[in-house]
Amino acid sequence: MHQTIDATLGINLLHANQSLANLNRAEFDDWGVYCLNLMSSPGAGKTVLLEKTLAALSGQLQMAVIEGDMTTELDAERLRQYDVPVIAINTGRSCHLDAKMVAGGMHSLEHDYEPADLDLVFVENVGNLVCPAEFEVGEHAKVALLSITEGEDKPLKYPVMFQEADCLLLTKIDLAPYLEIDLDRIIQSVRQMNPNVRIFPVSAKTGEGLDPWFKWVQLQVALRQQSAKGAAVQELVW
Q1: Closest CA to 63 of 86, 29, 40, 45
Q2: Cβ atoms < 10 Å from Cβ of 63
Q3: Strand, helix or coil for residue 89
Q4: In sequence order, which residues have a C-beta less than 8 Å from that of residue 221 and are 6 or more positions away?
Q5: Structural contact between residues 151 and 130, judged by C-beta atoms closer than 8 angstroms
Q6: Structural domain contains residue 112
Q7: Euclidean distance between CA atoms 34 and 32, whole angstroms
């Protein structure tokens, strides 16, 4: 009986979250903004990846960050040094951002800045390999990070994260010579569950692999903007 009640509550919670996530996505669309949701376990390198990305693309794109952390604003402070809007959300005991939290972050962004001037919003989720993958926040695409130091079995042990990802960054590949790790085996495990995911082996320390990632981000934004313009033309035609 208790298991049935718990399952029903879980389904209702996910349904309510999905409904709000859809509203968030529609608002991002109204702003003309593309949203990427970055997810990983703690320490995989989300914040340093954002630092490198903000620095590299600041001349090409207008960006903002909604930064999720359980208790502090340490990561948010790091990102504010790149002169972009950063909205910090503390989740308390919650191990993920949900659509309601991100809606609050969007409200703060709209209040303090001009969203129509933005091209791209990054959501940096709380470090966790389980919950963030199940709760959409209104993103247009999910980006997962996996540090090679975490081992080859993580895609198989935490399949939902990798099944849901549109893009995967294998981070800290500069450490590969010092580890007994098989990158091909990791990639094979991921492809087994998600054959269409785009994979970028990268090192934020050396810069290896970052340029293809930057270009992928720019391409997604450009495709979204092109699609939005096409939809606007379609409305005028009709």
Answers
A1: 86
A2: 25
A3: strand
A4: 34, 61, 119, 120
A5: no
A6: yes
A7: 7
- Encoded amino acid at 41, one letter: S
Separation of alpha carbons 191 and 213, rounded Å: 18
**Containing structural domain, residue 85:** 32-231
At 227, which CATH number? 3.40.50.300
Number of domains in the chain: 1
> How does DSSP assign 32-64, residue by residue?
T-EEEEEE-STTSSHHHHHHHHHHHHTTT--EE
Structural domain contains residue 60? yes
Between CA 53 and CA 229 the distance in angstroms is: 26
Contacts of 99 (CB under 8 A, 6+ apart): 17, 18, 20, 21, 23, 24, 135, 136, 137, 138
Task: Give a yes or no: residue 6 inside a domain.
Answer: no
The CA-to-CA distance between both ends of the chain, in Å, stands at 54
- pLDDT tens for each residue of 159-188: 999 999 999 999 999 999 999 999 999 999
DSSP letter at 19 equals: H
Nearest to 110 by CA among 57, 54, 66, 60: 66
pTM as predicted? 0.91
Q: Assess contact for 167 and 141: CB atoms under 8 A.
A: yes
Task: Using CA atoms of 42, 103, 121, 73 in order, give the dihedral in degrees to the nearest 10.
Answer: -40
pLDDT at 238: 42
Residue 104 within any structural domain of the chain = yes
